[in-house]
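go over whats below:
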Amino acid sequence: MMTNLFSTFDPANTINISMNWMSTMLGLMIIPSTYWIMPSRYTMIFMKIMMIMHSEFKLILNKTKGFTLMFVTMFMFILMNNMMGLLPYVFTSSSHLTFTLTLALPMWMSLMIFGWMNNTQHMFAHLIPAGTPSVLMPFMVCIETISNLIRPGSLAVRLTANMIAGHLLMSLLGNNMTNTSSYLIMSMMVVQMMLMAFETAVSMIQAYVFSILSTLYSSEVNYENTPKSPIPLSS
């Protein structure tokens, strides 16, 4: 029995143990692998999606090798959790800031620390866009600094808010179906089916938006002039 509308997102179960967070890793158990699963259409679709996302991220990170693996993995992980949240009695972990900030904050912080430690001049240059008048330079530095600081928060809140909004609307309509007539129930079922299709699209789009914005933020860090540690030659 739900105490309020937001109890749908309560991570604790009836015995007050937050075991629902285990569903976050459930998607990793069903991801196919060519080493232990025979090739199937499901595997082909899964690999097709990964190759499409790899090509998308490669266009943005055209001079950085290996980063596409991290962002493709992030995209598939968020997509799996968003899609599983649409199933009945499955905890929607991506509707909590604990989940989204765990993905956004360490990634953003590691990129910022790497950029400022290895390419300080390049990071300072990003604070002032090209063609900015001299009078506006101090204001642009403040604006760009604030925009850089709120990036992990905007990524986390965007994903959380979009997942909460659709689930709240579906829960609200589902709770009111018991108090309506038989004619209205049929129409509300059609509306629920349309909302389900809409939420499926939102789950895919938000996973793509989260990963593509993370890729765009990481592309601002210059990796070309990073000093490389000397590799000792074997005798």
Observations:
- The chain is about 65% helix and 0% strand.
- Confidence is low (pLDDT under 50) at residues 226-235.
- The chain has one domain: 39-223.
- The two ends are 72 Å apart (CA to CA).
